[in-house]
Amino acid sequence: MNPSKGVLFYGPPGCGKTLLAKAIANECGANFISIKGPELLTQWFGESEANVRELFDKARAASPCILMFDEMDSIAKTRGSGGPGSSEAGDRVINQILTEIDGVGARKNVFCIGATNRPDILDPAVIRPGRLDQLIYIPLPDLKSRLAIFKAALRTAPIAPDVSLDVLARSTHGFSGADITEICTTASKLAIREAILTEEERLKKVEAGDLDEDEGKADPKDLMITKKHFNFAMSRARRSVSEKDLALFEEFAEKQKAGRGEAATNFKFDNSSSSSNDETEDENTDDLYA
Ligand SMILES: Nc1ncnc2c1ncn2[C@@H]1O[C@H](COP(=O)(O)OP(=O)(O)OP(=O)(O)O)[C@@H](O)[C@H]1O
Ligand SMILES: [Mg+2]
């Protein structure tokens, strides 16, 4: 078979689509070119398309290569939609991208990844079979993922031993990865600010002669991010993805799933002749068909 030409990551903002692409770049060992949609657009007539051509030329020359289009919705809006931000130049750019993706032969070893948080306004031609035909939904993190994100965000931070990341993860249902990172940043910042203030107070006292030079100096080992800091950070925390937005994504994901198989629900190969064989196989492949 011919390998797939690309995937599309979609999901609410701040859930790690761009991060995932970066991780792929690190892990895959192929060349990696990343471009944000708006970077392709210029004000000069015809230059935006030329940029696209150049980009694919570069990718082909560097094959095996992964070509990442971040913020794809900005260039791949439904053509001719005439909505805000849609433009003739945008239409020509997306036409050029479609042409290039079609033109990338299987032997050329160029794989395209698109990322967007607006799959609903994306031109359907982009995700039709043969182009970015594998749609991967990157949802809000679940409990396990939230814990992992807390751990990752705080891996180098000195946290007080009584701070339970487990509890934090459990009370951040509905938060995106970016929101969780923000909580950690706020707590760290607060701890740092507090340490600086304490030290300033101490220096003032030293100056006034109340304290000796090194008296009461905090041991760097004791400077930690404590429960208090996290309490404050949590009180300032926000959910950047609203229930309403989330519902839209879930709906789109459902629609993608439901759309598959709808066209031929009644179709089934008659397998009565080889049934004994099939059953043993079914047991091993349950996961595959889940
Ligand atoms: N799964 C995760 N693990 C660790 N950090 C994460 C994760 N998801 C998000 N983050 C944090 O949130 C930040 C934003 O994530 P990222 O830029 O990948 O979001 P995105 O899905 O591309 O959003 P957008 O749709 O707005 O472009 C990251 O830089 C990282 O700090
Ligand atoms: Mg992004």
Mind explaining what this structure looks like?
This protein has 290 residues and is an alpha/beta fold. Helices cover 47% and strands 10% of the residues. The protein has eleven helices and five strands; from the N terminus they run βαβααβαββααααααα. It has helices spanning 17-28, 37-40, 47-61, 88-103, 143-153, 165-170, 177-208, 227-236, 243-259, 275-284, 286-289, and strands at 6-10, 31-36, 65-70, 110-116, 134-137. The chain has a five-stranded parallel beta sheet with strand order 2-3-4-1-5. β3 (65-70), α4 and β4 (110-116) form a beta-alpha-beta unit. α7 (177-208) crosses α8 (227-236). The radius of gyration is 26 Å and the shape is elongated. Adenosine-5'-triphosphate binds next to α1, α5 and α7. The site of adenosine-5'-triphosphate (ATP) has 15 residues, from α1, α5 and α7.
The neighbouring-strand order within the major sheet is 2-3-4-1-5
Radius of gyration: 26 Å
Unreliable residue runs? none
Main sheet overview: 5 strands, parallel
Structural class: alpha/beta
The unique ligands bound to this protein are:
adenosine-5'-triphosphate, magnesium ion
Q: What would the average pLDDT be, to the nearest integer?
A: 85
Ends: how far apart? 23 Å
Number of helices: 11
How much of the sequence lies in strands comes to 5-15%
